[in-house]
Design goal:
Blueprint: H1 4-10, E1 16-20, E2 23-26, E3 30-36, E4 39-44, E5 48-52
Length: 70
Amino acid sequence: LMRMSDACALMEDASGMRVHRSWWVAQAAVQGQARSDSRVELAVKGGLAVPVSRARHGTMRDPAWGYAAG
């Protein structure tokens, strides 16, 4: 067991990012995004809906993260 920040530091070279307080997501696992009001969630393989913190909303606008305008 370790702190999330320490685990994320070990994942530095991996293609992914910490999207919420206790969520790290591999970029290859992202299948799309869902938005409702001011909330953003990533749809990932396996059917999970991963919350995205408000601080990460701007990063999620990148098409590589499943952003679809509209």
